[in-house]
Amino acid sequence: MRRGSSQMKQESSRSPSYNVECEDYVHVVEFNPFDSGTAESLIAYGGNNYVVIGRCSFQEEDAEVDGIQYNTLRTFHQGIRVDAIAWSPETRLDALPPLLRFCTAAADRKLRLFTSDLQAKNEYKIMEGHSSYINNLVFAPKGGQEIASVSDDHTCRVWDLEGNVRACFVLRSAGMSVGWHPEDAFKLMVAEKNGTIRFYDLVTHQAILSLTTGQTPLMSAHWCLKNTFKVGAVAGNDWLIWDISRSSYPLEKKPVHADRAKLFRWSTINENLFATTGYPGKMNSQLLIHHLGHPQPILIGSAAVGSGLTWHRTLPLCAMGGDHRIFFWVTEM
């Protein structure tokens, strides 16, 4: 019996559709989720010393491209390991001069807000206040004038672009993920390692709803931007999905990663499509792409090492970082 099932897994395990060579080990990778005014996609990756901004296009969107076309726009030397990256909606490549803006969280517990015109102006502002490791950060999607970050120091902080703390929520455990509602600028989702996901009102600073995974550790949660009633998370070995319009109990949950699950990300274009990753363990396959309604993952991606997880803004394509590489998998809708 066991042999048969492992054989089935073997057949569905896929090496990446494309990969790009990078100048550093890739700890984190993020497609720009906002429209930056160009046909190509912007992608950022962070390594031990650098943040690299590149642009890429794929044959799935442009018939003249053979597979993938990638070029680096700018490399920013940070001199310290990059742990998380968030894109600002203010980034525009069709403006004159162009504006590139993003924020990183680094191993020294500081945020760095980078602003560049891709020519002479390349500056960054350091934001200090977290006393431990920063796990995730996000820009306010409307206007990009604030940044929210969560940390092992049991806080979620909301900053303005000058580095002032506008709000600080005290958590009961490490903050693992933070999400901002795409339409309602005053709603924030914060996921904690103890399995609690809370939604905060940024006007009253009160929690308005809370969900729980019922198991720990919660490592990652993500708000579905296609349908904001949907929330997904990974905790322990399982993925879990809620429909908060119906219940505060999970709609569905499944054990998927034998070595513990690490990241959960919804597709940007389909509210039933999502990806999870596991910890690099004995098993090579770490990326699973799921479709709600399918009993099994629709794609098992295999890479030797991997970190980070991100979906393309307009294609059913996700990427993961690795050893001096970014790997890309294309899936079906």
Automatic annotation (TrEMBL):
PROSITE patterns: WD_REPEATS_1 (PS00678), WD_REPEATS_2 (PS50082), WD_REPEATS_REGION (PS50294). SMART domains: WD40 (SM00320). It comes from the Eukaryota. Keywords: Repeat, WD repeat. WD repeats lie at residues 127-162. The keyword Repeat applies. InterPro entries: NUP37, WD40/YVTN_repeat-like_dom_sf, WD40_repeat_CS, WD40_repeat_dom_sf, WD40_rpt. The keyword Repeat applies. Pfam families: WD40. This is Nucleoporin Nup37 isoform X1. It comes from Gekko japonicus (Schlegel's Japanese gecko). The gene is NUP37.
